[in-house]
Write a structure and sequence with these properties.
elongated, 56% helix, two-stranded antiparallel ribbon, 2 domains
Length: 313
Protein backbone atom coordinates (compact mmCIF):
# COMPACT_ATOMS: atom_id res chain seq x y z
CA UNK A 1 0.00 0.00 0.00
CA UNK A 2 1.39 3.40 -1.01
CA UNK A 3 1.13 6.58 1.05
CA UNK A 4 -1.54 7.88 -1.33
CA UNK A 5 -3.55 4.73 -0.74
CA UNK A 6 -3.11 5.12 3.02
CA UNK A 7 -4.48 8.68 2.86
CA UNK A 8 -7.39 7.60 0.65
CA UNK A 9 -8.06 4.72 3.04
CA UNK A 10 -8.30 7.10 6.00
CA UNK A 11 -10.50 9.52 4.05
CA UNK A 12 -12.85 6.67 3.17
CA UNK A 13 -13.04 5.65 6.84
CA UNK A 14 -13.83 9.27 7.80
CA UNK A 15 -16.46 9.42 5.06
CA UNK A 16 -18.16 6.34 6.49
CA UNK A 17 -17.98 7.76 10.03
CA UNK A 18 -19.50 11.02 8.83
CA UNK A 19 -22.24 9.15 6.98
CA UNK A 20 -23.08 7.07 10.06
CA UNK A 21 -23.36 10.25 12.17
CA UNK A 22 -25.74 11.75 9.62
CA UNK A 23 -27.85 8.57 9.39
CA UNK A 24 -28.11 8.38 13.18
CA UNK A 25 -29.19 12.03 13.39
CA UNK A 26 -31.78 11.53 10.62
CA UNK A 27 -33.19 8.48 12.39
CA UNK A 28 -33.48 10.41 15.65
CA UNK A 29 -35.10 13.32 13.84
CA UNK A 30 -37.77 11.03 12.35
CA UNK A 31 -38.55 9.77 15.85
CA UNK A 32 -38.65 13.33 17.19
CA UNK A 33 -41.04 14.51 14.48
CA UNK A 34 -43.64 12.09 15.75
CA UNK A 35 -44.09 14.64 18.53
CA UNK A 36 -46.45 17.36 17.22
CA UNK A 37 -45.07 20.03 19.51
CA UNK A 38 -41.54 19.36 18.32
CA UNK A 39 -42.67 19.53 14.66
CA UNK A 40 -43.94 23.07 15.16
CA UNK A 41 -40.94 24.18 17.21
CA UNK A 42 -38.55 22.76 14.60
CA UNK A 43 -40.22 24.79 11.84
CA UNK A 44 -40.07 27.94 13.97
CA UNK A 45 -36.42 27.25 14.76
CA UNK A 46 -35.49 26.84 11.09
CA UNK A 47 -37.31 30.05 10.25
CA UNK A 48 -35.32 31.95 12.87
CA UNK A 49 -32.09 30.35 11.59
CA UNK A 50 -32.78 31.61 8.08
CA UNK A 51 -33.57 35.11 9.31
CA UNK A 52 -30.35 35.24 11.33
CA UNK A 53 -28.32 34.19 8.28
CA UNK A 54 -29.78 37.12 6.31
CA UNK A 55 -29.28 39.75 8.98
CA UNK A 56 -27.26 42.81 8.09
CA UNK A 57 -28.82 45.06 10.68
CA UNK A 58 -28.09 46.45 14.12
CA UNK A 59 -26.42 44.50 16.91
CA UNK A 60 -29.53 44.83 19.04
CA UNK A 61 -31.66 43.09 16.43
CA UNK A 62 -29.12 40.26 16.09
CA UNK A 63 -29.02 39.80 19.88
CA UNK A 64 -32.82 39.63 19.96
CA UNK A 65 -32.88 37.00 17.21
CA UNK A 66 -30.24 34.89 18.95
CA UNK A 67 -32.22 35.10 22.18
CA UNK A 68 -35.33 33.85 20.36
CA UNK A 69 -33.28 31.07 18.74
CA UNK A 70 -31.87 29.86 22.08
CA UNK A 71 -35.31 29.99 23.65
CA UNK A 72 -36.73 27.83 20.88
CA UNK A 73 -33.81 25.40 21.30
CA UNK A 74 -34.67 25.04 24.99
CA UNK A 75 -38.33 24.42 24.16
CA UNK A 76 -37.31 21.82 21.57
CA UNK A 77 -35.29 19.99 24.19
CA UNK A 78 -38.28 19.98 26.53
CA UNK A 79 -40.48 18.53 23.78
CA UNK A 80 -37.85 15.90 22.90
CA UNK A 81 -37.78 14.59 26.46
CA UNK A 82 -41.11 12.90 25.71
CA UNK A 83 -39.38 10.65 23.14
CA UNK A 84 -36.17 10.15 25.13
CA UNK A 85 -34.01 12.46 23.01
CA UNK A 86 -32.28 15.82 23.21
CA UNK A 87 -31.83 18.38 20.44
CA UNK A 88 -28.20 17.29 20.21
CA UNK A 89 -29.38 13.81 19.15
CA UNK A 90 -31.10 15.25 16.06
CA UNK A 91 -27.98 16.78 14.51
CA UNK A 92 -24.89 14.80 13.35
CA UNK A 93 -22.26 14.33 16.06
CA UNK A 94 -18.98 14.30 14.18
CA UNK A 95 -15.73 13.09 15.75
CA UNK A 96 -13.91 16.25 14.70
CA UNK A 97 -15.64 19.59 15.38
CA UNK A 98 -13.06 21.40 13.23
CA UNK A 99 -13.68 19.72 9.86
CA UNK A 100 -16.87 17.76 10.68
CA UNK A 101 -15.06 14.57 9.59
CA UNK A 102 -14.39 15.86 6.08
CA UNK A 103 -10.61 15.72 6.65
CA UNK A 104 -9.80 19.13 5.17
CA UNK A 105 -10.12 22.75 6.30
CA UNK A 106 -9.57 25.55 3.80
CA UNK A 107 -7.96 23.12 1.39
CA UNK A 108 -5.45 21.81 3.96
CA UNK A 109 -5.39 18.52 5.86
CA UNK A 110 -7.18 18.83 9.19
CA UNK A 111 -5.23 17.89 12.32
CA UNK A 112 -7.56 14.89 12.81
CA UNK A 113 -6.69 13.49 9.37
CA UNK A 114 -2.97 14.06 9.97
CA UNK A 115 -3.23 12.18 13.26
CA UNK A 116 -5.06 9.26 11.61
CA UNK A 117 -2.48 9.10 8.83
CA UNK A 118 0.34 9.12 11.39
CA UNK A 119 -1.30 6.32 13.36
CA UNK A 120 -1.65 4.16 10.26
CA UNK A 121 1.89 4.98 9.17
CA UNK A 122 3.19 3.88 12.58
CA UNK A 123 1.20 0.65 12.33
CA UNK A 124 2.42 -0.07 8.82
CA UNK A 125 5.99 1.10 9.42
CA UNK A 126 6.86 -1.77 11.74
CA UNK A 127 8.38 0.65 14.24
CA UNK A 128 5.59 -0.19 16.67
CA UNK A 129 7.34 -3.48 17.43
CA UNK A 130 10.30 -1.45 18.73
CA UNK A 131 10.48 1.33 21.30
CA UNK A 132 9.69 4.07 18.81
CA UNK A 133 12.28 6.46 20.24
CA UNK A 134 12.35 10.12 19.25
CA UNK A 135 14.99 12.82 19.52
CA UNK A 136 13.29 13.90 22.76
CA UNK A 137 14.66 10.72 24.38
CA UNK A 138 18.27 11.70 23.85
CA UNK A 139 20.53 12.02 26.88
CA UNK A 140 22.85 14.88 25.93
CA UNK A 141 25.33 13.98 28.66
CA UNK A 142 26.09 10.76 26.76
CA UNK A 143 26.57 12.72 23.55
CA UNK A 144 29.03 14.97 25.36
CA UNK A 145 31.05 11.88 26.32
CA UNK A 146 31.11 10.52 22.78
CA UNK A 147 31.99 12.97 19.96
CA UNK A 148 31.44 10.26 17.32
CA UNK A 149 27.90 9.66 18.56
CA UNK A 150 27.29 13.42 18.80
CA UNK A 151 28.32 13.85 15.16
CA UNK A 152 26.03 10.99 14.09
CA UNK A 153 23.19 12.55 16.07
CA UNK A 154 23.70 15.84 14.21
CA UNK A 155 23.68 14.04 10.87
CA UNK A 156 20.41 12.32 11.85
CA UNK A 157 18.84 15.68 12.74
CA UNK A 158 20.04 17.26 9.51
CA UNK A 159 18.78 14.26 7.53
CA UNK A 160 15.29 14.64 9.01
CA UNK A 161 15.22 18.42 8.55
CA UNK A 162 16.20 18.20 4.88
CA UNK A 163 14.29 15.02 4.02
CA UNK A 164 14.06 13.89 1.28
CA UNK A 165 16.65 16.33 -0.05
CA UNK A 166 19.61 15.70 2.25
CA UNK A 167 22.89 15.71 0.31
CA UNK A 168 23.10 11.94 0.80
CA UNK A 169 19.94 9.98 0.00
CA UNK A 170 21.05 6.90 1.92
CA UNK A 171 22.73 6.25 5.26
CA UNK A 172 24.63 3.20 6.45
CA UNK A 173 25.11 3.13 10.22
CA UNK A 174 27.50 0.46 11.45
CA UNK A 175 29.37 -0.37 14.64
CA UNK A 176 29.51 -2.79 17.54
CA UNK A 177 26.46 -3.96 19.49
CA UNK A 178 25.10 -1.32 21.88
CA UNK A 179 26.51 1.78 20.23
CA UNK A 180 23.07 3.25 19.48
CA UNK A 181 22.44 2.27 15.85
CA UNK A 182 18.84 1.11 16.24
CA UNK A 183 18.06 3.98 18.59
CA UNK A 184 19.27 6.49 16.02
CA UNK A 185 17.28 4.93 13.18
CA UNK A 186 14.16 4.82 15.36
CA UNK A 187 14.56 8.53 16.07
CA UNK A 188 14.77 9.26 12.36
CA UNK A 189 11.75 7.08 11.61
CA UNK A 190 9.60 8.59 14.37
CA UNK A 191 10.35 12.17 13.36
CA UNK A 192 9.64 11.53 9.69
CA UNK A 193 6.38 9.74 10.45
CA UNK A 194 5.28 12.80 12.45
CA UNK A 195 5.59 14.70 9.17
CA UNK A 196 3.39 11.99 7.53
CA UNK A 197 6.20 10.41 5.56
CA UNK A 198 5.68 6.73 4.80
CA UNK A 199 8.53 4.99 6.62
CA UNK A 200 8.95 1.22 6.67
CA UNK A 201 11.18 0.04 9.54
CA UNK A 202 12.06 -3.63 9.20
CA UNK A 203 14.76 -5.89 10.58
CA UNK A 204 16.87 -7.69 8.04
CA UNK A 205 15.48 -10.97 9.41
CA UNK A 206 11.86 -9.87 8.85
CA UNK A 207 12.76 -8.44 5.44
CA UNK A 208 14.10 -11.83 4.44
CA UNK A 209 10.90 -13.52 5.66
CA UNK A 210 8.76 -11.01 3.75
CA UNK A 211 10.61 -11.76 0.53
CA UNK A 212 10.24 -15.52 1.10
CA UNK A 213 6.52 -15.03 1.73
CA UNK A 214 6.17 -13.14 -1.55
CA UNK A 215 7.69 -16.08 -3.38
CA UNK A 216 5.04 -18.47 -2.06
CA UNK A 217 1.93 -16.59 -3.18
CA UNK A 218 0.36 -16.18 -6.64
CA UNK A 219 2.20 -13.70 -8.83
CA UNK A 220 -0.64 -11.15 -8.74
CA UNK A 221 -0.44 -11.04 -4.91
CA UNK A 222 3.35 -10.65 -4.80
CA UNK A 223 3.24 -6.94 -5.58
CA UNK A 224 1.01 -6.21 -2.58
CA UNK A 225 3.60 -7.78 -0.26
CA UNK A 226 6.68 -6.11 -1.76
CA UNK A 227 5.12 -2.74 -2.64
CA UNK A 228 5.70 -1.10 0.79
CA UNK A 229 9.39 -2.02 0.64
CA UNK A 230 9.82 -0.69 -2.88
CA UNK A 231 7.64 2.42 -2.77
CA UNK A 232 7.72 3.80 0.79
CA UNK A 233 9.24 7.26 1.31
CA UNK A 234 12.01 5.75 3.43
CA UNK A 235 13.02 2.13 3.99
CA UNK A 236 15.02 1.38 7.14
CA UNK A 237 16.71 -2.02 7.25
CA UNK A 238 17.79 -2.67 10.81
CA UNK A 239 20.47 -5.15 11.88
CA UNK A 240 21.67 -6.24 8.45
CA UNK A 241 23.40 -9.61 8.82
CA UNK A 242 20.97 -11.05 11.37
CA UNK A 243 19.05 -12.94 8.67
CA UNK A 244 19.94 -16.44 7.47
CA UNK A 245 21.49 -16.52 4.02
CA UNK A 246 19.52 -18.68 1.62
CA UNK A 247 21.26 -19.46 -1.65
CA UNK A 248 19.93 -17.57 -4.68
CA UNK A 249 17.25 -15.89 -2.54
CA UNK A 250 18.49 -13.66 0.30
CA UNK A 251 21.30 -11.80 -1.43
CA UNK A 252 19.53 -11.44 -4.78
CA UNK A 253 16.34 -10.19 -3.14
CA UNK A 254 18.16 -7.68 -0.96
CA UNK A 255 20.08 -6.44 -3.97
CA UNK A 256 16.88 -6.08 -6.00
CA UNK A 257 15.13 -4.05 -3.29
CA UNK A 258 18.06 -1.70 -2.68
CA UNK A 259 18.80 -1.35 -6.39
CA UNK A 260 15.16 -0.61 -7.30
CA UNK A 261 14.92 2.04 -4.62
CA UNK A 262 18.12 3.71 -5.78
CA UNK A 263 16.92 3.53 -9.38
CA UNK A 264 13.78 5.46 -8.39
CA UNK A 265 15.73 7.86 -6.18
CA UNK A 266 14.10 6.58 -2.98
CA UNK A 267 16.20 6.68 0.22
CA UNK A 268 17.24 3.69 2.33
CA UNK A 269 18.90 3.60 5.75
CA UNK A 270 20.75 0.46 6.79
CA UNK A 271 22.11 -0.38 10.22
CA UNK A 272 24.44 -3.30 10.92
CA UNK A 273 26.92 -4.76 13.38
CA UNK A 274 29.05 -5.85 10.42
CA UNK A 275 32.07 -3.99 9.08
CA UNK A 276 32.21 -3.15 5.37
CA UNK A 277 34.68 -6.01 4.91
CA UNK A 278 32.34 -8.47 6.64
CA UNK A 279 29.43 -7.23 4.49
CA UNK A 280 31.50 -7.80 1.37
CA UNK A 281 32.43 -11.31 2.48
CA UNK A 282 28.83 -12.15 3.36
CA UNK A 283 26.98 -10.54 0.43
CA UNK A 284 29.55 -10.07 -2.32
CA UNK A 285 30.85 -7.15 -4.40
CA UNK A 286 27.62 -6.44 -6.26
CA UNK A 287 25.58 -5.74 -3.12
CA UNK A 288 28.25 -3.81 -1.26
CA UNK A 289 28.60 -1.53 -4.29
CA UNK A 290 24.95 -0.59 -3.80
CA UNK A 291 24.99 -0.30 -0.01
CA UNK A 292 28.18 1.78 0.09
CA UNK A 293 27.60 3.78 -3.08
CA UNK A 294 29.64 6.90 -2.21
CA UNK A 295 27.75 9.08 -4.69
CA UNK A 296 24.52 8.94 -2.72
CA UNK A 297 25.35 7.17 0.54
CA UNK A 298 26.93 8.38 3.78
CA UNK A 299 28.55 5.70 5.95
CA UNK A 300 28.52 6.43 9.70
CA UNK A 301 30.60 4.34 12.07
CA UNK A 302 29.52 4.44 15.73
CA UNK A 303 32.01 3.64 18.47
CA UNK A 304 31.85 3.41 22.22
CA UNK A 305 31.46 0.94 25.04
CA UNK A 306 27.81 -0.08 25.14
CA UNK A 307 26.53 3.49 25.01
CA UNK A 308 22.81 4.11 24.57
CA UNK A 309 21.41 7.50 23.67
CA UNK A 310 18.52 7.21 26.12
CA UNK A 311 17.21 9.81 28.51
CA UNK A 312 18.08 9.12 32.11
CA UNK A 313 15.10 8.33 34.31
Amino acid sequence: MTKTQIILNQLEKMKQTRLQAQIKADQNLEIARQNKKFQKLEKDLRKVQMEISKLEISDEKIKAMHFEYNQLRDECNEALKNVGLTYKDTVPQYNCPICNDVGFVNGKKCSCLIKKIQEELVTRSGIGQFNGHTFDDVDYSILAENPVLAKAFKVANDYVSAFPNYKYKNLVIFGDVGTGKTFLTECIASELIKATNYVVFVTSFDLNNTVLKSMNVPFNEREDILEPLLECDLLIIDDLGSEPIMKNVSINSLYTIINERQRHDLPTITSTNLTPQMIQERYGDRLISRIFNTENTLAIKLTGKDLRISKKK
